[in-house]
Amino acid sequence: MTLSKEAKALGQTVLVLQGGGALGAYQVGVYQALSEAGIEPDWVIGTSIGAINASIIAGSAKNERLDRLTEFWRRVEHGQFIDHPMLPAWAAAAARNMIAVGAGIPAFFRPNPAAFVSPHAPLGPEDAGYYSTLPLRATLEKLVDLDRLNSGEVRLTVGASNVRTSEMRYFDSRDMPLGLEHVMASGALPPAFPAVRIDGELYWDGGILSNTPVEVVFDDNPRRDSLVFAVHIWNPHGPEPETIWEVMNRQKDVQYSSRAHAHIKRQRQLHRLRHIVAELASRLPEESRRDNLVAEMASYGCLTRMHVVRLLAPALSYEDHAKDIDFSPDGIRQRREAGYRHTAATLEKAPWRGEVDPTEGFILHEACGGEMVGP
Predict the structure, then answer these.
(1) pTM of this prediction?
(2) Nearest-CA neighbor of 180 among 52, 332, 306?
(3) 71: closest CA among 25, 20, 16?
(4) How confident is the model over 168-212, as pLDDT tens digits?
């Protein structure tokens, strides 16, 4: 049986993409490996840069998705002329970062001069950011077909943080038509980028509250058997930092790797309980099962099963705390190639083929760099 048929046999295929700026190039390699294996997502979920990649996937024909992802990352490349054999890598990276901070990235964001005058300047709620993301909107207008995105061919969900209520909001193409404003809101990371207003409410980057929006799959209603590929571009595992430089790098990994582990632990418990409730209900006499109260309690049971493949991106050797703004051609290439290589190696192992406990509704397969590191 081919991998694509195996995936279909396990239910819907879901691709979950974390936020992380330039680190999102890794996700392109992940998608490429999946696509070459014949595995296309039925549902793609993203936050921040993950929402951007997700919108391009959902808003493109199957045979155009990889080309459009490649084109987006080509357009946001930055600092092509800084790299030089005689220039140390750290010096080139510092120069690129300074230019990005000072001048922006033409296809992504540009400085908002008024914001640099004073932090107390009255900019207005929809312009209160150091940069304007109008260039990003213009870029996405050329790469995302909104009619296709809302056609239902691929379900798209993007997460954003409500500025007023501090609550997470997931915009879902199954429930409402999505536009570029929903994608832009998901990536509106303050104070760099201004909030985006949707239906009267202001929204910031979803990564502020949940940078790994995998809980959307677990809490979906109705639940369905699923094969979930959750791509973590901020690795939750790392060594103890010994310098301030290493502290700043590790702090970002800890902050943006989100609480995915806690979500997964909770969902494993819940899914096991649902399976146990369903099994216990099946053992009751038919007469008891017809009782309204018993029927209501039995409704909490569920026999759906989710295989979650958690893909952890290992850090590149030269990365530091500014890795998420490293839009250099070499950085983008290395991350994309790593995503492809690691995902291809994981698919070759096909960890979902192993035997599972029939009372388990949630089976976790964790891979880092293409090597299985979890159950």
Answers:
(1) 0.92
(2) 52
(3) 25
(4) 999 999 999 999 999 999 999 999 999 999 999 999 999 998 888
> Quick one: tokens of 56?
């391009």
How far apart are alpha carbons 131 and 100 in whole angstroms? 11
Burial of 342 (0-12, 13-18, 19+ CB in 10 A): buried
Half-sphere exposure of 1 (CA within 13 A, CB side): 10
- How many CB atoms lie under 10 A from the CB of residue 357? 9
Tokens of 128: 């209160």
Q: Which residues contact 208 (CB under 8 A, 6 or more apart)?
A: 161, 189, 190
CA-to-CA distance for 143 and 215, rounded, in angstroms? 28
Tokens linked to 185: 């809101």
**Residues 187, 193 contacting (CB under 8 angstroms):** yes
Decide if pLDDT at 96 tops 70: no
Q: Report the chain's terminal Cα–Cα distance, integer Å.
A: 23
Residue 26 CA neighbour count, 13 Å, CB half: 32
Report which DSSP code applies to 324.
G
Q: d(Cα 83, Cα 77) in Å, to the nearest integer?
A: 13
